[in-house]
Design a protein that fits this description.
It comes from Chryseobacterium arachidis. GO terms for molecular function: DNA binding. This protein is 62% helix and 11% strand. It has helices at residues 5-19, 24-32, 38-44, 50-62, 84-87, 90-111; strands spanning 66-71, 77-82.
């Protein structure tokens, strides 16, 4: 079977665009680990600013990766949850974690 390199490149670019930036993957990981409220997500990601988390969650909602639920309580309760579509990325994140751990071992072993 012949591979369509143009299509593959487009798919890679789409993926890199999606995961590009410093915060998208940590936000997805936090949500998939059960953090639902804004402050829970924020506390689980060292270094992220309130403004950046807000921006990421809005973009992720626009891209059908996060569902925002508003509960009419006093004060208003807002929770975020990953969509099923977002969860399809979970295996990729897990593979990235595995690769990152192995890469760190290679780097550390070579420095000594």
């Amino acid at each position: 079977m012949e591979r369509d390199q143009t299509e593959e490149l487009r798919a890679l670019q789409d993926t890199l665009y999606f995961i590009g930036g410093k915060w998208r993957i940590p936000v997805i990981n936090s949500l998939c680990n059960g953090n639902r409220r804004f402050r829970e997500i924020e506390r689980s990601i060292p270094g992220i600013t309130t403004r950046m988390l807000s921006k990421e969650l809005k973009e992720m909602e626009m891209n059908k990766l996060v569902k925002r639920n508003v509960y009419p309580e006093t004060p208003v309760l807002i929770e975020y949850e990953p969509t099923e579509y977002c969860r399809t990325f979970g295996n990729i994140i897990q593979e990235m974690i595995i690769w990152g751990r192995e890469h760190r071992k290679v780097i550390v072993e070579n420095k000594i």
